[in-house]
Write a structure and sequence with these properties.
Layout: E1 2-8, H1 12-19, H2 25-28, E2 33-39, E3 48-55, E4 58-70, E5 74-80, E6 86-96, E7 99-110, H3 112-116, H4 119-146, E8 158-159, E9 167-168
Antiparallel strand pairs: 1-7, 2-3, 3-4, 4-5, 5-6, 6-7, 8-9
Helix pairs in contact: 1-4
Length: about 170
Amino acid sequence: MAVRHHLIRVPPAAVWDVLADGNRYAEWVVGTSESHPVRGQWPRTGAAIRYEVRLGPVHLDNETVVRHCEQGTRLELEAHAGVLGTARVAIELRPWGEHCLVILDEHPLRGAGGRLHNVGFEALIQLRHRTMLARLARLCEAGTEQTGGARRALGQVTVGSDTGGAGHA
């Protein structure tokens, strides 16, 4: 089972705003393009989005269905990947100080993906998750910067004139 954690430097509500927009799915999910809602109201349980996977000249249309939603904290999806079968993808958001700890958990449910699942496949999923969570972080953090959310890089030292030149971490 591929589980990965990532700290995103925005509040959980900002991360949820991106997850709750079915049109933005392809912006952060690795391997997808052109996502759009097709059923229900994303991300409510039962809602679905369609997206395209492009492998060179081949274009595959796939669908992801919301199986469980706890508004603002948890989203569980069933991703349909054609002949590979389906996978359960659970995304949990936890407050971590003023930031959000995102926990991504994915494992195959049905089809060839489950039968082919092994240590090597797990390593590929971990690489995919690393990229996916980095994309999600960029989208969320860029959105905060665009809306005027002031923040400084973690570990950055600032020197203010009101402190008599003393640095703060």
